[in-house]
Every structure is written in structure tokens, then in C-alpha cells.
Amino acid sequence: MFRSKGEELEKTMKETQEMLQTVEEHAIGEKKFFGGESIGIADIAFGSVVYWLEVIEEAVGEGAVFEAHRFPRLHAWIKNFKQVPVIKENLPERDWMVTFFKNRREALVRSA
């Protein structure tokens, strides 16, 4: 998604939404975290993917992939995840990341 444009970007966004839909339907359920009420290794692994996805999505600026109305359980989960003190204290600064990746993506797309 980060390096794509045009039809390739659309295809990649659709594939990403399909993957998120599978997680939405089968992984979380009504639990706060993947394993229940406390954070576990699955949350940490998937949390890094979703946090980066949100940043890349904003940097790409071609429409939303991780939409709240389409993935309500995942949105509730990521909100809970980001509020865990050790996670909150160690997440990279989002605005800096968006700016960095937006500039990096523009350079990659120009050179392709």
C-alpha cells in the first residue's frame, strides 16, 4: 500500500480490508483484547501492524482502509490497546511519523 498507486493501490487496499474483516469477524469477539481482559502477545503483535497501518493510511491519503463503521470491534480494540500504559508510553509520535512517511512515499512514487 505504501509504494502503490492507481489500480495497484486499490487492489492492495481491498486485500488489506479483507484481512481486517477476517480479524474483525473471528478474532476479537466481545473481548477487550485478543486473549480476554488483559493484553497479550497477540495484541502486541497485531497492535504494531494496526498502528502502522493507520499512519501509512494517512500518509498515502487515498481513502480510508481501517474505517470505524466497517471494523467497530477492531476500532474498540485499538483504542483499548493504545490506552495500556506501557503501550501509550512507547508508541512513536504519530504526527512525526505521518510527515516522515508522507515525504518518503512521495519520493518512492516519483522514482517508480
UniProtKB/TrEMBL annotation:
It is found in: Cytoplasm, Cytosol. InterPro entries: Glutathione-S-Trfase_C-like, Glutathione-S-Trfase_C_sf, GST_C_Tau, Omega/Tau-like. Is involved in the conjugation of reduced glutathione to a wide number of exogenous and endogenous hydrophobic electrophiles. Residues 1-101 form the GST C-terminal domain. It catalyses: RX + glutathione = an S-substituted glutathione + a halide anion + H(+). Keywords: Cytoplasm, Transferase. The keyword Cytoplasm applies. It comes from Salix udensis. Coiled coil: none annotated. GO terms for molecular function: glutathione transferase activity. It is an enzyme of class 2 (transferase). One of its GO terms (biological process) is glutathione metabolic process. Its EC number is 2.5.1.18. Belongs to the GST superfamily. Pfam families: GST_C_2. This is Glutathione S-transferase. One of its GO terms (cellular component) is cytosol. Transmembrane segments: none annotated.
